[in-house]
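User: Here's a chain of 221 residues. Predict its fold as tokens.
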Amino acid sequence: MEDPGDGSFGVSTSVRPGINESYLGATEKDMGDWEERLEGESREVVQSRSALVALLGLEGGDVVADVGAGTGLFAGQLSDLVGAAGRVYAIDIAPQFLAHVRGKIAASGRSNVVFHLAGAKHIGLPPDAGVDVAFMCNVYHHVEYPGAYMPTLGAAMRPDGVLWVIDFKRIEGVTDPGILRHVRAGQEQVTEEITAAGFVLEESVDLLEENYILKFRWPST
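Assistant: Prediction complete.
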């Protein structure tokens, strides 16, 4: 889709219509299949889950936003790292996915996870949420209105807070054709979109083969 040239691209105009239809249409009976798909050991981010969580540098008492919590792949580990004094915001656009994660967290006895339903154009957190670390793993390519959505994440960050984005590399002739069809933008464009929302790129971490890792910071002033 081309930029309409009126400033609405990614704000009022979707960059990828229908990208979340399968998630939004999921039911309780679908969750087993989704969990198998999203948490399967063949996925690079699943294989590297502990390394990715360690990269965040979380400490007890931190407030972390698990943006696009999905089936809860990371929620439990994030909860354990921030501890009783911290908080995890589990955020997703699909109600049934949130309900699924809520059930898993409740069964585990953890009590520091708070659930928020996002919209296509907003993160679902209040502006004073005070997020220390936001984490988006294989999620950004599902953001349909980045020009509207990402500024609401920035508003929920504390000054000097950190955003980590892990997503698929998109390189013609290298990346799997299925990923090329599914993922609309590569690392450079994603960086441009996120910095346009006010975040500042701090570093790129070379850890994975199929995915890139970007660290952004929300400015203190």
